């Protein structure tokens, strides 16, 4: 099983073996893996070595521990490409997952200063503030606070934002959504976010802020999103030269 003569440390070889068992579904998602005692017998190493391997895999998000219950295989993270400007609804559809939203708040407000600036709004313009939990196959993935100028999308109602806001805007207003700037930052969940996302407080969160423009260059939305870091990772292709 393990190559005791290899220069690779034992804990590392165990990690690789466990990862391979997760990949080939010998250990399935949300199921327990064998106990430390069982693993140390199986690999013929000390429990400390096993613990180190398991702890590393917990820290990397492959496994998670539940007090008194054992160590479980985490669900695979969703890999989100960073290139395309897609909507949450499109992202989920592409993966064969079912998207839905819970509307927490839908109000019309004078824009906070940073939103006003990012949307290049004049003094008196109002914005919709739409606060939603986004679900994939009924599991909460993100909470999003979206700001859209009322003047650009007049008459938008609560019923219009349960599904895709992008689809609503493009279909009902004959706009073409063109491009966005996006910022991603690591944060930790506060109590409210943790409750909404069904994670423990202080769990890792990916805070994403997007400012989006229509074809003619008009900014039409600012979105502040908090994505679960245990369920998401972002990938991009990069070129040298
Ligand atoms: C993603 C982006 C948001 C964007 C949203 C639109 O979640 N992070 O910035 O507003 O998609 O999604 P939908 O059209 O499904 O409402």
Automatic annotation (TrEMBL):
SMART domains: HTH_GNTR, UTRA. PROSITE patterns: HTH_GNTR. GO terms for molecular function: DNA binding; DNA-binding transcription factor activity. Residues 8-76 form the HTH gntR-type domain. CDD domains: WHTH_GntR. One of its GO terms (biological process) is negative regulation of DNA-templated transcription. Keywords: DNA-binding, Transcription, Transcription regulation. The keyword Amino-acid biosynthesis does not apply. PANTHER family: MANNOSYL-D-GLYCERATE TRANSPORT/METABOLISM SYSTEM REPRESSOR MNGR-RELATED, MANNOSYL-D-GLYCERATE TRANSPORT_METABOLISM SYSTEM REPRESSOR MNGR-RELATED. This is Phosphonate metabolism transcriptional regulator PhnF.
């Amino acid at each position: 099983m393990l190559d005791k003569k290899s220069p690779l440390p034992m804990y590392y070889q165990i990690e690789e073996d466990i990862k391979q068992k997760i990949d080939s579904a010998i250990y399935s998602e949300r199921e327990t893996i064998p106990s430390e005692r069982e693993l140390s017998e199986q690999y013929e190493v000390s429990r400390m070595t096993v613990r180190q391997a398991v702890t590393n895999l917990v820290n990397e998000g492959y496994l998670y521990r539940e007090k008194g219950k054992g160590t479980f295989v985490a669900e695979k993270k969703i890999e989100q490409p960073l290139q395309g400007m897609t909507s949450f609804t499109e992202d989920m559809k592409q993966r064969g997952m079912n998207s839905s939203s819970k509307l927490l708040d839908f109000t019309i407000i004078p824009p906070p200063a940073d939103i006003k600036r990012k949307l290049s709004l004049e003094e008196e313009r109002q914005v919709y503030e739409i606060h939603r939990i986004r679900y994939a196959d009924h599991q909460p993935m993100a909470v999003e606070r979206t700001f859209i100028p009322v003047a650009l999308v007049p008459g938008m109602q609560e019923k219009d934002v349960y599904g895709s806001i992008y689809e609503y805007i493009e279909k009902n207003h004959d706009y073409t959504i063109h491009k966005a700037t996006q910022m991603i930052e690591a944060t930790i969940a506060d109590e409210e976010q943790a409750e909404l996302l069904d994670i423990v407080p202080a769990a890792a969160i990916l805070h994403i802020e997007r400012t989006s423009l229509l074809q003619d260059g008009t900014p039409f939305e600012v979105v502040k999103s908090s994505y679960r870091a245990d369920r998401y990772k972002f990938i991009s292709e990069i070129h040298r030269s």
